Amino acid sequence: NQYVPVITLDGPSASGKGTIARLVSQALGFHYLDSGALYRLVALAAMKRGVDAGDEQGVVGIARSLDVSFADSSIRLDGIDVSDEIRAEACGEYASKIAQYSALRVELLERQRDLRKLPGLVADGRDMGSVIFPDATLKIYLTANEEERARRRHKQLMEKGINASIAHLVLALRERDERDSKRVASPLQQCEDTRLLDTTGLNIDQVVGKVLGMYADSGSIE
Ligand code: CDP
Ligand code: CDP
User: Fold this and answer.
1) Does 14 appear as a known binding residue?
2) Do the interacting molecules here have an ipTM over 0.90?
3) CA distances for 182 relative to 47, 97, 187, 188, angstroms
4) How many whole angstroms from 1 Cα to the centroid of ligand 2?
5) For a 10 Å CB count at each end of the chain, is N or C smaller?
6) pLDDT tens by residue, 89-102
7) Which CATH superfamily is domain 6-215 in?
8) Ligand 1, residues 22, 152, 176: which to mutate, most atoms within 8 A of Cβ?
9) Is 5 assigned to a binding site?
10) What is the pLDDT of residues 134-166, one digit of tens each?
11) Distances from the Cα of 29 to the Cαs of 23, 38, 52, in angstroms?
């Protein structure tokens, strides 16, 4: 059994996890796991099928029957590309409500671990380093201050033609991050074997450079 390197990036909403993880995986030629997309996909499927976020059994049933094709690029539900649809704030909101169910998290556990393949994996989410890949090669807690994260999300939404005030986004992100940090099942937390990377004031290239530098320093054989 050969050791497969894993870099985990956990952190609050709009800290840049997805963007950075994708670019780092490309730079290293590694696979990429967007675990948030998995929760968002279950959320979207449940919403479309009229399942209430409070209905734990209903939500777990949806996840169990979900045929997730998790190709690196497009994310499909019932054969339709929903890569953009799952990014809606409403979907993130619903995802964070159902993410509290430990039965759902157990249901999704192996599907995530299965993606750990040579030459390596970069995984982003909330519990990548703490629960899914506890023996990861490098664990990073990626963050930025609340205002900057809200501004980043605002710009991202505006580019898609979606209007939302920064003040509203600050409140929405805060509520979601609190729920994700305070829940009992796999909460978002900075563990002691995790490196803090505060990206406030750093651009994407700078953050990618820092992560690659940390990985090179981690003693991995590359
Ligand atoms: O995955 P997560 O919600 O943590 O964040 P993301 O969707 O990757 O990033 C949110 C937005 O911030 C994207 O539009 C990124 O391009 C932007 N970003 C940035 O401006 N500066 C960074 N250092 C990282 C991300
Ligand atoms: O892009 P953003 O950081 O806003 O969210 P995301 O990573 O797409 O995740 C959406 C929601 O799924 C989060 O608010 C979490 O509640 C949940 N999630 C989780 O519980 N565990 C993960 N590993 C990833 C996401």
Assistant:
1) yes
2) yes
3) 24, 12, 6, 8
4) 31
5) N
6) 889 999 999 999 99
7) P-loop containing nucleotide triphosphate hydrolases (3.40.50.300)
8) 152
9) no
10) 999 999 999 999 999 999 999 998 998 888 899
11) 10, 22, 40
